[in-house]
Design brief:
The complex is a heterodimer.
Chain A lengths: L16 H12 L3 H18 L1 H4 L16 E2 L6 E2 L10 H37 L1 H15 L3 H12 L3 H27 L3 H8 L4 H9 L4 H24 L11 H8 L8 H30 L1
Antiparallel strand pairs in A: 1-2
Helix pairs in contact in A: 2-4, 2-12, 4-5, 4-7, 4-10, 4-12, 5-7, 6-7, 7-10, 8-9, 10-11, 10-12, 11-12
Chain B lengths: L7 E14 L2 E14 L3 E5 L6 H8 L7 E10 L2 E2 L5 H7 L4 E4 L3 H4 L6 H13 L3 H14 L5 H6 L7 H14 L4 E5 L7 H18 L2 E6 L2 H7 L2 E6 L2 E7 H6 L4 H9 L51 E2 L8 E2 L27 E15 L3 H6 L3 E15 L3 E5 L6 H9 L6 E6 L2 E2 L10 H5 L1 E4 L13 H11 L6 H14 L16 H13 L5 E5 L7 H18 L2 E6 L2 H7 L2 E6 L2 E7 H5 L5 H9 L7 E3 L30 H5 L4 E3 L5 E3 L4 H5 L5 E3 L10 H12 L1
Parallel strand pairs in B: 3-8, 3-9, 6-7, 7-8, 15-20, 15-21, 18-19, 19-20
Antiparallel strand pairs in B: 1-2, 1-4, 4-5, 9-10, 10-12, 11-12, 13-14, 13-16, 16-17, 21-22, 22-25, 23-26, 24-25
Helix pairs in contact in B: 4-5, 4-7, 5-7, 7-8, 8-21, 15-16, 17-18
Classes of the chains: A mainly alpha, B alpha/beta.
Chain lengths: 298, 714
């Protein structure tokens, strides 16, 4: 074959990673459900980031207890939009700051659980045999445990701290992620491009992380959104059980717990934190639905 | 058109079908006409995306939620069915019009016995008694030549083979005595020898049941064997219609002619009559050109004549039966001029042996952990995937390994590539024994010089990497180049080599067509300057015209580099065209090997003979003896003790075939046959192929043997 020596066709510019990311985001516009979900999630994220600017009061300072929503602070003249709790802290400000905790620990815990689950799932699905048997049995054992008993044991033994909550969530979620990754790997490992990589002597690590993992990303991204929702609920529940992050910093689940005895008289004290949790989870679920819709269409 | 006395079963007039998508209306079929009479079968031929399946779906009125008939009429027994209600359609489908699909397993319900599924048809459509339904179903199974119909009636779909499943599907379709049968690639998923049986059955249906048939296929050879008339489709339009004889011998549309030039007919030869691919690509439905759809790919295109107005179907004068073409210039074109540039290649002298396989065996162990097996001491069973393979391949030679599914050809490729290790014997590649070295332990140069082209174009490239990235990785991995600029330069040269534009570098596989993906696969295999390339059915998943282009490309590069090509295939017509030598495998063993001429002429191994007879040939000047094999491929877990082919062999001698391994008969230096039949008797066998005179009556030495052959096949 004659190699053409002259500079022939000018090369098109390679799309930058950012441009490609923006293009996939633009795809989401095709799904109204996904757009609503993304809107809710982005709104919460912005609220958490801008918390010091937008929250009307300091979340931990006690101002005036038992205020109904819409009451006015006589000293500053500012409005308690969502009322105050039993020791007089502004509920709106606490919800805004509480979002920070969920939106920091939730994604960290989910990402770590994914890291563990992906490694386990790839190894089990790619090597099969003994690796598969051992990893699958281990995850079966973990999955057969009542999850909350597990949380209570872990956190009451090691103490309630951010790190322990993340570790507990990794322990509980990684087996489920491993099962998904393993299933995808079992399918993808039979593709010809994997065989092509094997026949040129690529290492198993390269094949697992470069040839297989990127092609499993579609279902994994959808699952990650859903799982982030579950983790949000888990963090809320742990807070409610008193196993969450230590006070006094605001925590949505903790807020419900602190005020639950007063719920019949002052429903606003628990209704709004609950709404915060469910709206974020709903947003994540809708986003996952939208992503799934797009990934099927593509 | 000459009048046919029989009333037409199906009349399609000016049919237009569109799909409505997000991007707007996409016309799938335009101005389509077709008439099918009772007892007649019409072949609908074209490449993927030409609209042939859409027509079939429209006849069933089953276009899905986004498809619709936007013009014209479909008359079934004189009644226009384009406006039937759902209830009326339900009564028509399955009882008056029946359809047979490609994948028999998907057409049968795995949870019901075959008897129950068959009986359903008369029970629902005709409300007969259970006993009558059973009797009729059983009789129909016997009619489609299924052995032991009672057993099949009680069996579940997974308990019978693929060929038997397709026979059941055909029986089910015929049970309600439909007036029209639609067959959508009914044999594509089956093995060649099984296909031959189904084709014989389909060809008999029309005569036996008086059913009109529409046979959809991409395979011209199959259409020739089953149909009376043919309708060639291109880009949503019928471009040529006529009888098989007229269209196959006097085609009057450049596309039809291009198709015949692209398939390996017996007259094609890789050295002096190479295949000619149709240039260009099928236009997307919303990007069709003005005027003649085939215009941009046609060497006879003339502005003003072939466009901008749409071309109408016109009659070819001087034909006895109706013959129409959608070509504006068919009367001016010299139809006898040779296709293509008439390029002549010199035959290649093969060099030293590159690969020597000697007594190679590959057994898989299968552990039976049941208590019974442990007690009887038969806990381990062996799957004999490859049994004592011995052959060699020389430099610059094309060796084909031929066999049906389960013959062990893919296992052999795996051992060769180092993905598995051999159980016994040796494989010597360029002087090094490689049979027990896994690919990771092989030196880099060895890995680079033994590469592979894969079968499935949609699977061969990693969807999340760019084309350039994938080829570049191979270059770096094999240490051909390390400097990024040089790697880039080399990728560009490889893209040139496989005739792809350089700006494909940054494309991702989903932006490429099937043929383009296979080209990238070829570039990747040749990136490390291999001494030998294994091609595992590299073109079988591609369209006819693309197959020719990829086949020619592969051979051109192989010729250029002096590479040895190990071509694994089940398609004997492709193999005859390109291979220098052929190895025929059955159940993990070599039945026959020799040069292409030797394998295609007597003496044959009886299996080779059956395999050759099963190849559909789209050349009306060549006929063949029909040998249809009985029975199914035996299980590899429990192969016959003697000759593996003994259970299906039409020339079986007797007990010796069942008990003893056949000796290897040496016909010449290169030609070997493993058979108990003495060489002299095999040499006396008539050739499978013989030429026929223009009139169509068999002539020559094969005429007498045609009956002998089929008798032996019973």
């Amino acid at each position: 074959m004659v190699a053409s020596t002259e500079a022939a066709v000018p090369l098109p510019r390679r799309q930058s990673a950012l441009a490609r990311f923006l293009k996939s985001v633009a795809l989401l516009r095709e799904s109204p459900v996904g757009m609503v979900g993304a809107g809710i999630v982005i709104a919460w994220a912005l609220a958490a980031i801008l918390a010091p600017l937008i929250s009307p009061f300091d979340p931990n300072s006690t101002i005036l207890p038992f205020q109904k929503p819409g009451a006015i602070d006589p000293t500053t003249g500012k409005v308690f939009w969502l009322g105050t709790d039993k020791i007089g802290r502004d509920i709106l400000s606490r919800i805004i700051y509480g979002g920070r905790r969920v939106l920091i620990y939730g994604p960290i815990a989910t990402a770590c659980a994914y890291a563990v689950g992906i490694v386990m799932g790839l190894a089990a699905g790619y090597f099969r045999g003994w690796w598969d048997s051992i990893l699958s049995r281990v995850s079966d054992i973990v999955l057969s445990f009542p999850i909350f008993v597990l949380y209570v044991i872990v956190i009451s033994t090691f103490g309630a701290s951010g790190l322990n909550i993340v570790l507990a969530i990794i322990f509980a979620s990684a087996p489920g992620i491993m099962r998904i990754v393993r299933g995808l790997t079992l399918d993808l490992r039979n593709r010809d491009y994997v065989a092509a990589a094997q026949t040129r002597g690529e290492s198993p690590l390269y094949i697992m992380f470069v040839e297989i993992l990127p092609n499993a990303r579609g279902p994994l991204i959808v699952d990650a959104c859903l799982r982030l929702g579950y983790v949000t609920i888990t963090i809320g529940t742990l807070g409610f059980l008193g196993l969450g992050l230590p006070p006094p910093d605001p925590d949505w689940g903790g807020m419900v717990n602190e005020n639950r005895a007063l719920a019949p008289a002052f429903p606003h004290m628990i209704v709004y934190p609950c709404l915060a949790i469910s709206s974020l989870v709903l947003g994540l679920n809708l986003l996952a639905d939208g992503l799934r819709e797009i990934s099927i269409r593509d | 058109m000459t009048e046919d006395a029989r009333p037409p079963v199906l009349e399609i007039e000016n049919l237009c079908i569109s799909y409505f998508t997000r991007a707007g209306e996409i016309p799938a079929v335009k101005d389509f006409n077709l008439t099918v009479h009772a007892g007649e079968s019409v072949g609908l031929v074209g490449e993927s995306g030409c609209g042939k399946s859409t027509v079939a779906m429209a006849i069933m009125r089953y276009l899905g939620s986004n498809g619709g008939i936007v013009g014209g009429s479909i008359k079934f027994k004189g009644r226009d069915i384009t406006h039937l209600s759902d209830e009326e359609l339900r009564r028509m489908r399955g009882s008056e019009v029946a359809m047979i699909y490609q994948e028999p397993m998907a057409a049968l319900n795995p949870a019901l016995t075959i008897g129950a599924q068959l009986m359903e048809v008369p029970l629902i459509h005709e409300a007969v008694s259970e006993q009558e339904a059973y009797d009729r179903s059983r009789q129909m199974l016997a009619d489609v030549k299924l052995p032991d119909p009672d057993r099949v009636m009680a069996a579940y779909p997974h308990q019978i083979s693929g060929g038997q499943q397709q026979r059941v599907v055909i029986a089910m379709a015929l049970l309600s005595k439909p007036a029209l049968l639609l067959l959508d690639e009914p044999t594509t998923a089956l093995d060649v020898t099984v296909e031959a049986g189904i084709i014989e059955l389909i060809a008999e249906i029309a005569g036996k049941f008086g059913t009109a048939q529409v046979f959809i296929s991409h395979n011209l050879g199959l259409v020739r064997e089953t149909c009376d008339r043919i309708c060639v489709m291109y880009s949503g339009e019928a471009v040529e219609t006529g009888t098989i004889g007229d269209v196959f011998t006097r085609m009057r549309h450049p596309y039809t002619r291009g198709l015949f030039g692209a398939i390996p007919l017996p007259s094609a030869n890789k050295n002096d009559r190479p295949l000619v691919a149709i240039p260009g690509q099928l236009p997307l439905p919303h990007q069709r050109p003005e005027g003649c759809n085939f215009g941009p790919r046609c060497e006879y295109f003339r502005d003003g004549v072939c466009g901008p107005n749409a071309i109408e179907m016109r009659d070819v004068p001087g034909e006895k039966s109706p013959h129409q073409t959608r070509c504006a210039r068919f009367e001016e074109i010299d139809w006898d001029a040779p296709l293509g540039a008439g390029q002549v290649n010199d035959p290649i002298e093969p060099g030293e042996p590159v690969l020597v396989v000697d007594g190679m065996r590959k057994y898989y162990e299968l552990y039976d952990r049941s208590i019974k097996a442990m007690l009887s001491g038969e806990g381990v069973k062996y799957v004999k995937a490859n049994e004592t393979l011995s052959f060699d391949a020389r430099e610059a030679e094309i060796v084909a390994i031929v066999g049906e599914s389960g013959c062990g050809k893919s296992t052999f490729a795996k051992v060769l590539m180092g993905l598995e290790t051999a159980t016994e014997g040796t494989i010597t590649f360029k002087g090094d024994e490689i049979e027990s070295t896994e690919v990771q332990q092989r030196p880099r140069e060895q890995v680079a010089s033994l590469q592979m082209v894969f079968q499935n174009p949609n699977d061969t490239l990693n969807p999340s990497m760019t084309v350039g990235g994938q080829i570049g990785r191979v270059i770096r991995k094999f240490g051909v180049e390390t400097d990024p600029d040089k790697v880039h330069e080399r990728v560009m040269r490889l893209l040139d080599m496989v005739k792809l534009p350089r700006d494909f570098y940054f494309r991702r596989p989903r932006q490429l067509s099937g043929g383009q993906k296979q080209r990238v696969g070829v570039a990747r295999a040749f990136a490390g300057n291999p001494a030998m390339v294994i091609a595992d059915e590299p073109v079988s998943a591609l369209d006819v015209s693309v197959q020719a282009a990829v086949t020619e490309l592969l051979m051109e590069i192989q010729r250029e580099h002096g590479t040895t090509l190990l071509f694994i295939s089940h398609d004997l017509s492709v193999v005859r065209y390109l291979a220098d030598r052929i190895v025929v495998m059955y159940l993990g063993q070599i039945m026959e090997q020799g040069t292409t001429e030797e394998v295609f002429a007597p003496p044959y191994h009886p299996y080779t003979e059956a395999l050759l007879s099963a190849v559909p040939i789209a050349d009306t000047s060549v006929d063949k003896r029909k040998i249809v094999l009985e029975g199914n491929l035996p299980s590899v877990l429990n192969p016959p003790k003697g000759c593996p082919f003994e259970t299906r062999c039409p020339r079986k001698l007797g007990a010796i075939c069942e008990t003893e391994r056949p000796p290897v008969l040496v016909d010449s230096d290169t030609h070997r046959i493993a058979c108990h039949i003495p060489l002299e008797s095999l040499q006396a066998v008539e050739p499978v192929f013989f030429s026929v005179a223009e009139t169509g009556s068999p002539a020559g030495p094969g005429a007498g043997s045609a009956t002998t052959g089929s008798a032996a096949g019973e």
